[in-house]
Structure formats: structure tokens, C-alpha cells
Design the sequence.
């Protein structure tokens, strides 16, 4: 018997192909309607009103476009510098400075309340929605229902759908207002429903937590969320650094946190060669988004807080760098060596399979370079007498193909 999630995915794929103009396929609506009926009963039992359930769910159908975005695997992914140049463009820096000056009074109030410096709130706003320029185009109820029904991440998105209904039921948002990203991000700072429900605040005092129409609520909610993630208002996010010749690259991208004094003792300096600032018991982690040949950063505790918002190191570095430039730091001019394109998911999966075949435990073959895969890469690199930075490259994959030929 075909597993339930596979049945759902097959039905949705047929629905998506039909919607995209491919060969005729059976409608997914009967299966979806049964799922939705069961969900509606659970939501009713959880306290969502009948009026909200009817307004939100009557006539609902899965979104082919959401399924396409969730399941499509891009052939090529952005390199660090491609991502960085888009995220921290000169025009975004200029616009951010203008808006930070315009909203200086409000941002100062929020800093006093939550301890988050204005430049970081504005930087997050810039990366999430280009300062409110684009907050998404997908109905959030439809998107989260589609992703919950599809089944790959059912528990996550079932919870998001229920929280979205709570937000409407409790009056924070109107259903027609809930337009966001294909994965449910909403408003100026793109909170998913669970984050919205847990961390959004009514800073303007109008009785609603409105992250669409109220910059006061949006900025304060971002600051509140960061404060709950451990933000320190008396610290920056980190800085670009220089590591010495012979640096132990096993310490990079490993999550190893050490006092700044320890990094300084190893020879780590600021990018310009000046000594690291050693302040009290502050700690940091070495982050090398392109391995040993690319730029190197020392992320402090606030870097970890940004990762709590978005688990991407590219994102966290971009937020911190944009925040720095908003208050006058110069653009980054670090050398940009040719490293080659970032491996796509299929290549990473092949690398994992070949590492496992050689006895390096890369874990499940899932196309994602998690900590276990990076540890296996480090061990393999060390065996090749290469810097063990755990960074996956086409050259390393080519070497793996040679070493596993015939095995």
C-alpha cells in the first residue's frame, strides 16, 4: 500500500501538473477535502471559532505554485558573494540609512524597551522585505494548508496553519490581510504564524499586533524576538578577521565557541591586522562561509541570535554587515578568489554517498551539508593533507569519484 504522504504528494503533483498545463490529471480535491475536514475538527476542538473556520477554510484548495516552490530543486545555488552583493547592495545601504534617520525616534524607544540597536532592526527589515517593499504574494492560509497536507513537513505546517487561524480569530489580523511568503512569512519582518503568535507585540497600543500596517509593532516585535533569542545590546554581531598561517581549520564552522582572548592567543586578528578587542568574557565562533580560501568571520553571541532567526550563515553575515554599513562601516573589499559554484543538493547527496562508501560517516544521504557531513568532509580532507575546513567543492567531489571508482 502506498504511504499516506506519498499519496498526498502524488495527488498534489498531478494537481500541479494539470494547473501548469501538462497532461490531464485527476483532481486532488477529494483527498484534500478529507484532510481539511479532519483538520477543521481538530482546529474546532482547539478553540478556533466556527466563524473563522468557515471564512478561512470553506472552498480552500491546495496551491500548485506552493508545491512547485517547495519541491523544486534549483540547479545552481547562490555563492556567498552573489548572495552578499544582493543583500548588502549600495542602494540598500543608502535606503537603510535614510529610513533609520527617518524613524530614529521610534527606533530609540524600541532600543530602550528591548535592548536591540536600531541598525540591526533596520538591517533585518531590509533583508526580509526590502524595507516593506515586498511582503509576499501568497495567501498564508492556503500556503500553510498546502504544505501541511503535502506531508513532507506536516507537523510543522499543521501547527503554522492552526496558529494563523488563531491570529485571525483573536483579532490580530484580518484573513484578507494575511498575504505573505510561500512558506507563511508575514508582514514587514516576515514572521511565520507561530513566531507571530509568540513574539509579536502591540507597541503602538491600538489593541492589535499588526506587523503589516504598523512599523511600531513590526520593529518592536523584531526586537522582542531577538531579545528572547539572547541578544546583547552592549555588543556587536561579530567582525571579519584574519587567521594565521597554520590555523586549525577544524575549529571553523564547527560551532566551537571560545573566549576572544583564546582566539587572539592563536593569532586571530581583525581583518586589517590590528589586535582583536578582548572584552570581558565575550566568546565567538569562527565562520568561513567559503572554506579556507574565502573570507573569515568571528561571530559573537549576537551572531547566534541572528541564526536563531534564520539558520543561514550567509543571512547572519549579511545582516551584520548591512547593520555595520548603516552606521558608516566601509563596504567589504576582501579578495574574492575563484572557488567555483556552490554544490547543489544532488551533488551533496552524491558526496555523502561516496563518503559513506569510503567509511567516513556522513549520515543520511539527504543532500544537505549538516554537521555530520561536514565532520566526514573534514576527516576526508585531513586524509588528503588538505585544510580540513569541511567545505564541499566540485574538486573534492571529483576526488571522491576517483577514490570510490570500482567500490
Sequence:
Amino acid at each position: 500500500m502506498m504511504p499516506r504522504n506519498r499519496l498526498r504528494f502524488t495527488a498534489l503533483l498531478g494537481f500541479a501538473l494539470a494547473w501548469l498545463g501538462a497532461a490531464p490529471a485527476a483532481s486532488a480535491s477529494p483527498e484534500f477535502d478529507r484532510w481539511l475536514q479532519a483538520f477543521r475538527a481538530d482546529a474546532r476542538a482547539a478553540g478556533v471559532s466556527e466563524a473563522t473556520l468557515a471564512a478561512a477554510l470553506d472552498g480552500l484548495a491546495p496551491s500548485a505554485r506552493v508545491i512547485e516552490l517547495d519541491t523544486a530543486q534549483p540547479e545552481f545555488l547562490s555563492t556567498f558573494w552573489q548572495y552578499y552583493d544582493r543583500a548588502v547592495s549600495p542602494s540598500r545601504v543608502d535606503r537603510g540609512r535614510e529610513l533609520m534617520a527617518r524613524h530614529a525616534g521610534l527606533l530609540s524607544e524600541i532600543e530602550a524597551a528591548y535592548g536591540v540597536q536600531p541598525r540591526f532592526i533596520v538591517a533585518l527589515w531590509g533583508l526580509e522585505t526590502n524595507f516593506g517593499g515586498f511582503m509576499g504574494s501568497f495567501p498564508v492560509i492556503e500556503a500553510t494548508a498546502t504544505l501541511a497536507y503535502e506531508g513532507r513537513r506536516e507537523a510543522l505546517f499543521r501547527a503554522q496553519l492552526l496558529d494563523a487561524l488563531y491570529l485571525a480569530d483573536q483579532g490580530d489580523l484580518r484573513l484578507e490581510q494575511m498575504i505573505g511568503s510561500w512558506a507563511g512569512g508575514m508582514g514587514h519582518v516576515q514572521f511565520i504564524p507561530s513566531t507571530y503568535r509568540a513574539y509579536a507585540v502591540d507597541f503602538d497600543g491600538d489593541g492589535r499586533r499588526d506587523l503589516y500596517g504598523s512599523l511600531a509593532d513590526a520593529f518592536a516585535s523584531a526586537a522582542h524576538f531577538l531579545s528572547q533569542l539572547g541578544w546583547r545590546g552592549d555588543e556587536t554581531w561579530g567582525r571579519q578577521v584574519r587567521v594565521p598561517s597554520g590555523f586549525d581549520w577544524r575549529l571553523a564552522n564547527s560551532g566551537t565557541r571560545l573566549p576572544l582572548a583564546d582566539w587572539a592567543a592563536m593569532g586571530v586578528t581583525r581583518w586589517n591586522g590590528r589586535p582583536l578587542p578582548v572584552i570581558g568574557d565575550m566568546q565567538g565562533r569562527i565562520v568561513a562561509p567559503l572554506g579556507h580560501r574565502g573570507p573569515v568571520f568571528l561571530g559573537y553571541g549576537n551572531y547566534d541570535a541572528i541564526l536563531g532567526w534564520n539558520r543561514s550563515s550567509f543571512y547572519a553575515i549579511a545582516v551584520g554587515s548591512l547593520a555595520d554599513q548603516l552606521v558608516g562601516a566601509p563596504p567589504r573589499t576582501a579578495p574574492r578568489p575563484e572557488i567555483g559554484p556552490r554544490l547543489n543538493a544532488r551533488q551533496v547527496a552524491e558526496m555523502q554517498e561516496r563518503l559513506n562508501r569510503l567509511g567516513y560517516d556522513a549520515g543520511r544521504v539527504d543532500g544537505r551539508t549538516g554537521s555530520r557531513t561536514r565532520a566526514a568532509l573534514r576527516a576526508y580532507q585531513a586524509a588528503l593533507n588538505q585544510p580540513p575546513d569541511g567545505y564541499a567543492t566540485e574538486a573534492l567531489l571529483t576526488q571522491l569519484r576517483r577514490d570510490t571508482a570500482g567500490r
Summary: The longest strand covers residues 238-242. The CA atoms of residues 4 and 148 lie 13 Å apart. Residues 4-72+145-171 form one domain.
